[in-house]
Specification:
Chain lengths: ~1000, ~550
């Protein structure tokens, strides 16, 4: 069984090569594979009919209870014979339908063969998942087959429609299958049918499965894809859309009816939808002019009929259904093939242009007569026998069955009507149309259709011989089998025969009034499902664009706002529903002393103000104010050390901001809309409140004693009085080590970004500009006298690029701020220069003081370093970048490195002289003049921090300050030169 | 440190935990991470000391070797796990080495290897990375660097550090370790995102967005940790789980809201990393802006790592409050599957489309998370592996299709028209990947989808599965649209230039195809050997804590 399946896929893989070697005759070779399958099925048939299914089960993914399980019972046998048998004939037909130079024929042959394999797998599958897999494979292959004529837009669109509809249905079905499998505890079809689970969930699962089945079989409301799919080459239509793929849905209904045929939802859906489809599609077929479309709507109608029969849930209906299934395959496939022959021989399928083919193609005409007679249900053909038993099955049922019977009769009237229309349209003489010229089809081209038509003919008389075989399936339906009916050509005179007569009479009437029928049909036409489908697609597209426009604006504030809102909602819900405020927490104090209110208010006002200002600089200052406010609060809280550090850091960052902002536009480029600003304000306030509330209550959850109670004693032991400083340089010196390393890295990062030109010069780049020592500055007279305003301002030579090595020999300088001489006159301010010069020593002294007293009083290396850095900043601001170079002769990197070395050295010194790394010591020195000096090794450590911080600030000033100055100057020069050139 | 001072501190505090002597850690179990870390550090040193000409080769050998070695070690660790228990916790129960950890780590390492190959691709065209990231885009300076053939070999150590974070993320057994892993993983990625060679401003914008949003999400995660700590008095997963199961650790009375808000906040942090709606906004922008190999790395490895962490957090510490977090996850999963699928329909850029598809897939995996069952865990893990291979392959294909003018990647889908005619193999591979994304049978995508949906149905989340299926139908629609475009449309006038895949990229695509087909046709071995065996009698609705080491 597995080898039969595998043979198909191997043949499919070989097909392109075969086609390349043998041209279209390769199809004959490929036909051997389904032919062999048919033979194999026939050999198995006696055993299967005797009630001994053939099966095989291989574990595949046991974790998900998936297996490769195949099983052939009577239903499987019938379907296999249809799929493989008709497949064989279709492949033979293909060998004459196509020409050798058909583009993409190799691929087509492969896909068609693979499709035959997938279809076979579908009908033989005994595992739900595997069933789904083959189901989807047929979808994909049919998509490729329908889209065979890739040049045609219509063809591509039809393929896409078929794929979308059937995939949607298939996926829905997957859910149903999983639900069914989970409910049953097994995914094996045979086991599920043997012991079907029941319940509401199973009913839902069945409905979902039916959606898949109905979409595959093109029943309402999914019928739109099948007529569109008629863009496919005729063999494909004949195989997929008459015999094989569309039968998959019907097959699934037939497969599950023995288990669920009595479920009301099942009956309503299958019978109701089936009969409705039968009537509506039949009515539509009556007004088609394209022979293929006529057959397509006819197929939809017949599929509705089959579904209604097989889903009805009685034994007799099932028998009629499976007989009708065979009959339909045997008459619809040859009709499609005939249309292909006509198309091929005359070049048209429009029945308004065809005339006189009855005489020019007699063989084809007689084949068609047989097939059409079977389709219309004329004795003594197979279709008649099947239809008779169908009518009989619904004859004595409850009211809904009678209603269904009426519907089926109406549908059959239409069937007879369009059957006659087909025959008349394709073959008969039409007085107003000239006889269509034909070139006669070859024998092999006609043979497949002839074989099928002959089987249609034989099926009638031998219906009673088929009865025991087909009953093998019908008997599995446990309901309504009290007086089992039998399949036979002649049931005697009874209601069914009367109904058949009615149908024939009605059909003849419709045919004779065909002009009026077409007119009426067009008048009463329902909205074209294709248009609805396209509208839905267009609506999805529009919706998608709108949703994208709303959610994906590319705007960071919007993204962040979305996240924040969700956050507030997500965590707000448990807070409100859980009544967080009832938690046992210390009571909220408004303030310790009313003075705290002032900085808090200032902070809040500044924060809100940031939202409303348009100038960047102002915004930065306001942000700084919030920082100062927090620092003030620290101070009121009794943490002057923290407050000092915070003040200093705020100041430095403010200056850094200002330095950077020079390169940015003064105002925010995109004005914030008032509405958006209000929303932002709201979101910000909500998030802030949430965070504050949570911070409060999270802390309220604390039960362990806080570590801070131990700090005073610890600081005392460490020989210091300033707890913060002691923590930094002693108790948690390890942390500080890490932090200053990070600082050093950050400084390196900032510098490397700004100095990229120098530090990461391309290998083939120019050599650096040679550097002249700086003291040359003092020797040069300041140029740029007011008499020559257009002259280029004085620039010390060779220092336009920050030098790699700056070797400076200290030299007494008569100027206060020598570097300031390099500034343009309008940038200089005497007052500022004088103040800066005067303040600088004081600031440095203060920084050293902070460094030294850090251990016992306010201060510390970090604060001291920042203060010294601020001094440098003042000098830079007053005197420009050359002043900065002159102020500190060391490179920032050297300072940073030195700082790190000292800190690390202290740490290692502890290990060498003490007991472990960072072990400290206290020395009380008595120096005669100065007096008592309390020194700890941590002071040395702090000194390292001090140097490092100075280095960091120097680095920032050099890169963000001096470097940007340079850029500005260069740009000014370039633009000036450009102006000169244009002048 | 000052001993006296410390002892003073010690006496004041109630219960000092001072270790005497080195801690006893089973380094063998941590060896994969240690190898990656060591290679990252060596890579940094190589940047400093290896001559420029030999740097790339050195870095490449180092990185590939380390990842390979780590993978071998990971596989060998599978045998070292105890047969009966779920796994072992190491380093004071901060890291859990159990089957899920090893499976995810192994997956991450293989995917990282593939991404590294893409990163290393340097064949006929220049690499995907900027010659000099610090040069102003469009400046003379940049041109000089490009002409000089500068390259950023720092990429390799950065990737290794990110990889370290990714390995630790799903293995972390307490919240703080997990947070550290999150940061170690994210920070290099923020940087790597900004290094694209083409459209550099775009790339930098993406990096800034990713960084800012990521920083916020990390902050939320940390906040969540604080609240959970407030509730449970511990950050260790096992302790938290115990507290949750026992209705509080006695730390705080009626602390439920703290726990729930904590779950919400930590959840937001994790959901941001996996890119679930409404925290997905960064994904399209970043995936599009980042250099494509980095996008591949993020789409595969980061997603696996983030979901690994998500699964562990929601299954172990929060496993006892499934009924509380499930509604939230339902909403997020539904939003993710529906919104992303709908938006994806309009995308005209292949990378953006893949980004949205990654969001949709995150939604599918969330359905398995919601199942909170061993099947859910197994399904999610299989899905992650399957999706990872497919997506790496897809991005590898993207790197090869370049636009005529400029030579950048041809992102716009209209340029892909008719690719199936001009380069059938490449288009065929992409077609296969797209079919796998759509979940067509016989590809790994189908088995994955089946696994997660089955788990969700078994856990009673059928409506979720129905929505998932509908959304996968919508996604299938646009995947197929690309296939149609490639195979059935006329090649565009100004068609793209398709590079011949160099060795590394070719290998990645081949591996992607092989894994997609193999996992689709024959998933048994992977499921058997690597996945934890789901316990037979597991009650749905209770998180499968016994599959994780605690």
């Amino acid at each position: 069984m597995l080898s039969v399946l595998a043979a198909h896929f191997v043949a499919a893989a070989l097909a392109p090569f075969l086609v390349r070697w043998w041209g279209r005759n390769a199809f004959l070779a490929l036909a051997l594979v389904p032919a062999a399958t048919t033979l194999w099925a026939l050999l198995c048939a006696p055993g299967v009919v005797a009630g001994d299914p053939v099966g095989v089960n291989v574990a595949w993914a046991p974790e998900y209870r998936m297996s490769l399980a195949f099983r052939m019972d009577v239903l499987g046998l019938v379907m296999t014979l249809i799929a493989a048998g008709i497949g064989t004939l279709i492949l033979v037909y293909c060998a004459r339908y196509f020409s050798d130079d058909e583009p993409g024929l190799g691929r087509f042959a492969g896909v068609l063969t693979a499709f035959a394999g997938a279809m076979l797998g579908l009908v033989l599958a005994d595992d739900l998942v595997q069933l789904f897999i083959f189901w989807e494979l047929t979808t994909v292959f049919s998509y490729l087959l329908i889209g065979h004529n890739t040049e045609r837009r219509e063809s591509r669109r039809a393929a896409m429609t078929a794929l979308t509809v059937t995939t949607l249905g298939g996926l829905t079905m997957l859910v149903g299958l999983i639900m069914l499998g989970e409910a049953a505890g097994t995914y094996l079809l045979s086991e599920i049918i043997a012991a079907p689970p029941r319940g509401a969930a199973v009913t839902v699962a069945l409905v979902l499965i039916l959606v898949g089945a109905l979409s595959k079989s093109a029943l309402l409301p999914f019928s739109l894809w099948l007529p569109a799919a008629m863009q496919a080459p005729t063999p494909v239509s004949g195989y997929l859309h008459a015999a094989a793929m569309v039968k998959a849905g019907v097959y699934l209904v037939a497969r599950l009816t023995p288990a669920y045929g009595d479920t009301p939802a099942w009956q309503v859906l299958t019978v109701g939808v089936g009969v409705a489809t039968m009537i509506l599609a039949g009515w539509k077929a009556l007004r088609q002019y394209d022979l293929k479309l006529l057959l397509a709507y006819g197929t939809v109608s017949q599929l509705g009929f089959l579904t209604a029969l097989l889903g009805a849930g009685t034994r007799d209906a099932a028998l009629a259904g499976i007989a009708m299934l065979c009959a339909h395959a045997l008459f619809k496939a040859p009709l499609f093939l005939v249309v292909g022959i006509i198309d091929h021989s005359t070049g048209t399928r429009d029945l308004r242009e065809l005339s006189g083919l009855r005489r020019s193609m007699p063989a084809v005409w007689w084949i068609s007569v047989l097939a059409v007679a079977s389709m219309a249900g004329l004795p003594p053909l197979f279709g008649f026998a099947a239809k008779e038993s169908a009518f009989a099955a619904f004859e004595h049922g409850p009211a809904w069955q009678t209603l269904a019977l009426v519907g089926m009769v109406v549908g059959t009237v239409f069937t007879v009507g369009y059957s006659l229309r087909f025959l008349w349209g394709a073959f008969l003489d039409k007085p107003e149309v000239p006889t269509t010229p034909v070139h006669a089809p070859g024998a092999l081209f006609v043979a497949p259709a002839a074989v099928l038509a002959a089987l249609s003919l034989l099926g009638g008389p031998f219906a009673s011989a088929l009865d025991p075989i087909l009953a093998g399936y019908a008997d599995t339906v446990p309901w309504g089998g009290a007086h089992p009916a039998h399949l036979a050509l002649w049931h005697g005179f009874g209601t069914p025969l009367v109904l058949t007569a009615v149908c024939l009479a009605g059909g003849l009437l419709l045919f004779s009034r065909r002009g009026e029928v077409v007119w009426l049909g067009n008048r009463l036409a329902l909205p074209d499902p294709n248009r609805i489908y396209r509208r839905v697609l267009a609506a999805v597209d529009t919706l998608a664009i709108q949703v994208t426009g709303i959610t994906q604006r590319g705007s960071l504030p919007v993204y962040l706002g979305t996240t924040l809102v969700v956050l507030v909602v997500l965590s707000g819900v448990p807070i409100l529903t859980g009544r967080l405020w009832e938690i046992e927490a210390p009571p909220v104090r408004l303030w310790d002393s009313p003075i705290q209110f002032v900085p808090a208010a200032v902070t809040v006002i500044a924060a809100v103000g940031v939202l409303f200002v348009r100038r960047r600089l102002f915004a930065v200052v306001l942000v700084g104010v919030t920082g100062y406010g927090a620092a003030t609060l620290f101070m009121f809280q009794g943490a002057p050390d923290l407050a000092l550090t915070q003040f200093l850091v705020e100041t430095v960052s403010l200056v850094v901001f200002v330095l950077v902002l020079r390169r940015l536009p003064t105002r925010f480029t995109t004005p914030v809309l008032r509405g958006r600003r209000r929303i932002n304000l709201l979101i910000g306030a909500a998030t802030g409140t949430l965070v504050a509330v949570m911070a409060y209550f999270a802390l309220a959850g604390r039960r362990a004693e806080t570590i801070s109670s131990g700090y005073p004693a610890a600081a005392e032991e460490a020989g210091g009085k300033n707890i913060i400083s002691t923590i930094l340089v002693d108790l948690r010196a390890w942390d500080t080590m890490g932090e200053i390393s990070v600082l050093a890295v950050a400084a390196a990062g900032v510098a490397s970004l700004m100095f990229v030109r120098r530090r990461a010069r391309p290998v083939r780049g120019r050599m650096g500009v040679p550097v002249t020592p700086l003291p040359a500055i003092s020797a040069v007279e300041p140029a740029g006298a007011p008499a020559e305003p257009n002259a280029v301002p004085w620039r010390p030579s060779g220092i336009a690029v920050a030098p790699r090595q700056l070797r400076i020999r200290p030299k007494w300088n008569p100027l206060w701020l020598p570097g300031a001489a390099a500034l343009a006159r309008e940038r200089r301010s005497v007052i500022f220069e004088v103040t800066a010069r005067g303040l600088f020593p004081v600031i440095v002294l203060l920084s050293v003081y902070l460094l030294l007293t850090g251990h016992t009083s306010i201060g510390g290396g970090f604060a001291g370093g920042i203060v010294a850095g601020l001094g440098l900043m003042v000098r830079y601001l007053a005197g420009g970048r050359y002043e900065l170079y002159a102020a500190v002769h060391a490179q920032p990197g050297v300072l940073i490195g030195l700082g790190l070395v000292i800190a690390a050295g202290t740490a290692l010194g502890g290990a060498v002289f003490g007991t472990e790394i960072l072990d400290g010591g206290v020395f009380d020195l008595h120096i005669p003049v100065i007096g008592h000096l309390h020194v700890t090794t941590s002071l040395l450590f702090d000194f390292g921090v001090y140097l490092l911080v100075i280095g960091l600030i120097l680095d920032i000033l050099r890169s963000l300050g001096a470097r940007i100055d340079e850029q500005l100057e260069r740009e000014a020069r370039d633009s000036a030169e450009a102006e000169e050139v244009t002048a | 440190m000052n001993h006296a001072a410390y002892s003073a501190l010690e006496t004041t505090l109630a219960a000092p935990v001072i270790t005497q002597g080195p801690p006893d850690i089973d380094y063998g179990l941590l060896s994969p991470m240690l190898v990656i870390f060591a290679a990252g550090v060596l890579g940094v040193l190589a940047e400093a000391f290896v001559p420029r000409a030999r740097r790339r080769v050195t870095q490449l050998v180092l990185a590939l070797g380390a990842v390979l070695l780590a993978f071998v070690l990971t596989v060998s660790l599978v045998g070292a796990l105890p047969a009966d228990g779920a796994g072992i916790v190491v380093a004071f129960a901060t890291v859990a080495v159990d089957r899920p950890t090893l499976f995810l780590q192994g997956t991450i390492l293989v995917l990282a290897l593939a991404s590294l190959l893409l990163i290393a691709e340097h064949g006929q065209e220049e690499s995907s990375f900027a010659a000099q990231a610090a040069a102003v885009p469009g400046s003379e300076e940049e041109r000089e660097h490009v002409l000089a053939g500068s390259q950023h070999t720092e990429v390799y150590p950065l990737v290794l550090f990110a990889l370290l974070g990714m390995l630790l993320f799903p293995a972390a057994n307490d919240f703080l370790t997990m947070f550290i892993a999150l940061e170690v993983m994210s920070l290099p990625l923020y940087l790597l995102c900004g290094l694209a060679r083409r459209r550099r401003l775009f790339s930098q914008e993406a990096a800034v967005k990713y960084f800012l949003l990521g920083a916020f999400s990390s902050a939320f995660f940390l906040f969540g940790i604080a609240l959970v700590y407030g509730y449970a008095g511990s950050v260790n997963f096992a302790d938290v789980a115990e507290a949750v199961a026992g209705g509080g650790a006695g730390v705080i009375a009626n602390g439920e809201p703290l726990l729930l808000a904590g779950i919400a906040l930590a959840g937001v942090g994790l959901l941001f990393k996996v890119g679930a709606v409404p925290f997905h906004n960064w994904k399209p922008d970043v995936y599009q802006g980042a250099p494509t190999p980095i996008t591949a790395l993020m789409a595969s490895c980061t997603l696996v790592a983030a979901f690994g962490a998500l699964l562990r957090v929601f299954y172990v510490p929060f496993g006892g409050s499934v009924w509380e977090w499930r509604p939230m996850m339902w909403v997020v999963a539904i939003l993710t599957m529906v919104a992303a699928a709908v938006i994806a329909v309009t995308q005209r850029d292949i990378k953006r489309l893949l980004a949205y598809s990654s969001v949709v897939h995150a939604g599918f995996i969330l359905t398995a998370v919601i199942a909170a069952s061993p099947e859910g865990l197994a399904g999610a893990m299989f899905y992650l592996a399957a999706y990872g291979f497919t997506t790496v392959g897809a991005f590898a294909v993207v790197t090869l299709v370049r636009s005529r003018e400029g030579g950048g990647e041809a992102g716009d889908l209209t340029q892909w028209a008719g690719l199936g005619r001009t380069s059938p193999v490449l288009a065929g591979a992409l077609g296969l990947f797209l079919l796998a994304f759509a979940g067509i049978p016989l590809t790994s995508g189908f088995i994955g989808k089946f696994a997660v949906f089955e788990a969700a149905v078994a856990a009673g989340a059928t409506p979720l599965v129905v929505i998932g299926v509908l959304s996968s139908a919508v996604t299938a629609f646009f995947y197929v649209r690309i296939i149609v475009l490639m195979f059935f449309a006329e090649p565009a006038e100004e068609g793209p230039r398709v590079l011949r895949p160099g060795g590394p990229t070719g290998v990645v695509i081949a591996v992607g195809v092989a894994a997609t087909v193999f996992l689709g046709v024959y998933p048994g071995p992977v499921l058997d050997t690597m996945l934890p065996q789901p316990a037979e009698a597991e009650v749905a609705g209770e998180a499968p804590t016994d599959m994780f080491a605690r």
